[in-house]
């Protein structure tokens, strides 16, 4: 199983910009029902694309500055970063197939 890193306000910039691979960030909160659906799907993506991609999670309740700076208005939101910048974004719960297509189409 590929590790998913937990990032927060203090280490977000380093996590998404100082990495040689694209970074998929799952913006979520523990009280969010759809986030609970997306969580296991994100874990599957981490396992499947672990050689090509870093997967990170940001709890928006614990990291409000990052959520505000990234313009996160609803969750779950998945954002794909390359060299510190967002290259793609998807909001809402989707299927494993949809997320796989999102990742493949953008890395």
TrEMBL record:
Q: Which Gene3D superfamilies match?
A: Glutaredoxin
Which domain of life, per UniProt? Bacteria
GO molecular function terms noted in the UniProt entry: protein-disulfide reductase activity
SUPFAM superfamilies assigned: Thioredoxin-like
Signal peptide boundaries: none
Q: Tell me which family the UniProt entry assigns to this protein.
A: Belongs to the thioredoxin family.
Query: Which PANTHER family does the entry link to?
Result: GEO12009P1 (PTHR45663)
Name it.
Thioredoxin
The lineage is: Bacteria, Pseudomonadati, Pseudomonadota, Gammaproteobacteria, Pseudomonadales
């Amino acid at each position: 199983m590929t590790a998913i890193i937990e990032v927060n306000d203090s280490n977000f910039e380093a996590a998404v910009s100082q990495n040689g691979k694209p970074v998929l960030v799952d913006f979520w909160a523990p009280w969010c029902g759809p986030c609970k659906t997306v969580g296991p799907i994100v874990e599957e993506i981490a396992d499947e694309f672990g050689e090509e991609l870093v997967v990170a999670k940001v709890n928006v309740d614990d990291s409000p500055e990052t959520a505000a700076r990234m313009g996160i208005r609803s969750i779950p939101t998945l954002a794909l970063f390359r060299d510190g910048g967002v290259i793609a974004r998807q909001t809402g719960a989707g299927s494993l197939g949809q997320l796989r297509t999102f990742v493949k189409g953008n890395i």
